[in-house]
Amino acid sequence: MILLAAMRTTVMTLLMSMGLVLGAGTASGQGTGAPPPLPLAGERAAALDPVLEAALILDATKPAPAKLARFNKACLKLSTTDELLRSFRSACRAEGDAFTAGLRLPSCKSSDRCRARLHRYAANLATQADKSRRLNAKLKLIVPGYDCRSALRITQGVLGALSRLRAGALKLEAAVRSGTAKQVADGVARFYAIDRSPLLDHRGRLDRFRAACV
Predict the structure, then answer these.
(1) CA 35, 37, 40, 44: dihedral to nearest 10 degrees?
(2) CB 78 within 8 A of CB 47
């Protein structure tokens, strides 16, 4: 009995010692472990914030020229040496070009001018879609946090809207070139009936960015 009690005491002592060692090791790891990485480096977040804020003007039906110029200026300020910021700069420049080209469509005064503007608009939309996809690829490679990456990525809804608008612009261009007055009128109605709502979420994107990336 005495021997059995001694063995139990020894086993309990060993277990307690192991527990203390493991506990100390866990506490030490928690206290000295590196903090989780930020979803976006501070310099990058600081550079993108004013661009995303200025982009709110792209949700406006009749944007003030000064605010549109502010967006374009903010976009051009992004670094061309940082891989992520350079890609974002290309995407926002393409978006600004397409947005401006779309604003100019209703003011064309002749068939030739209208066709030229529609053609330019369609080309700008194609460039915007291409630069957007390139940005998404860079985000996937560079930004570690899923929520931050999702906040910055160009959604499939946006890419789909760009594709529909481009197809509509090209169809309307063809109608203006060789269609009747009725075909042109019908084409204009169909073009402006295209759902543009996915392109008008810059406030939501800014809010998601500030919540997930900063």
Answers:
(1) 70
(2) yes
**CB of 68 within 8 A of CB of 57?**
yes
- Contact yes or no for 68/100 (Cβ under 8 A): yes
Which residues make Cβ contacts (< 8 Å) with residue 93, sequence separation at least 6? 72, 75, 76, 131
Distance CA 56, CA 154 (A): 15
Tell whether pTM > 0.85. no
Residue ranges of the chain whose pLDDT lies below 70 = 1-39
C-alpha–C-alpha distance, residues 82 and 73, integer Å:
18
Exposure string for 55-72, b = 16+ CB within 10 A, e = fewer: bebbeeeebeeeebebbb
The length of the chain, given as a count of residues:
214
Q: CA neighbours within 13 Å on the CB side: how many for 103?
A: 16
pLDDT of residue 40: 85
